[in-house]
């Protein structure tokens, strides 16, 4: 079922594959328009310099959220900093869905993106995302946990009680919103979607959290990093929610650039991330546990996520 869901999502992206002859090269899970000659599992910069993108205006997006306008303000100071470092205009592009974000990068309309944990392998394989940074606390620690939540007054006391119920996930590409809980429910509790419980999809972590708080959903799998930010903003009343399961720690949103971005532009973008002054910024106010960006390596840092995908029978089909 999981493979079918992911394939269906990717079919819905409307991603057109170039009709020109594709180069013969190592690719691994990457789409045929990309190459991976160095084996780092991400798309290489094209050998043909005429295919490098050197934008006058750099487009940046953050992972889809309930209220994009809120995050446009949160990222405003960072956007100004990047404009100063790169010497170019930088625009924040609010996306409404994961599929829209991947399609925008694949089609060349998006140059930098913050992609959710579970979506990173999909964006890498299908949209040419090259992840390079992640938020971390000042001491370098990072991560979040997947939690399964229920309305506070629910009679569901543990994941075993989900049997026979309807459980809300976010989207098929989300790690904490679908892939991790699916694998854990199966391995630890013998529960399989459609057989033991009915799955439904809310689209976003925010929707799932609010749905549980308002008793629209019986149970939901969410990223507690999103829940904590919503509680801090008073967007949800924590007394209306109860957690019945907490996972091990996962890496957070991975930030990356398009594979064909001019290397000089990509270097300036990375410089902007790693020199951003956090203290007193709106980013610090929103992401309270974080204090800097750290370097990431997709091959090693997302290994656990790819293993969860493999356990779920997920493949990164791009069309």
Write up this protein:
By secondary structure, the chain is an alpha/beta fold. The protein contains 12 helices and 11 strands. It has a 6-stranded mixed β-sheet with strand order 2-1-3-10-4-11, with helices on both faces. It starts with a helix and ends in an 8-residue tail after the last helix. 45% of the residues are buried. The N terminus is likely disordered. Belongs to the phosphate/phosphite/phosphonate binding protein family. InterPro entries: PhnD.
Supply the key terms.
Phosphonate ABC transporter substrate-binding protein, PhnD, D-Maltodextrin-Binding Protein, domain 2, alpha/beta, 2 domains, 319 residues, 5-stranded mixed sheet, signal, disordered N terminus, 11 strands
Helical content (DSSP H or I, runs of 4+): 25-40%
Per CATH, the superfamily of the largest domain is: Periplasmic binding protein-like II
**Topology pattern, helix = H, strand = E:** HEHHEHEHEEEHEHEHEEHHEHH
Total helices: the number is 12
Instruction: Please tell me the overall pLDDT.
Output: 91
Nutshell version of this structure?
With 319 residues, the chain is α/β, with parallel strands linked by helices. It has helices spanning 2-11, 68-74, 76-86, 98-106, 120-127, 175-189, 205-213, 224-232, 263-275, 282-286, 298-301, 303-311, and strands spanning 57-61, 89-92, 112-115, 129-136, 144-151, 166-169, 198-201, 219-223, 241-250, 254-258, 292-295.
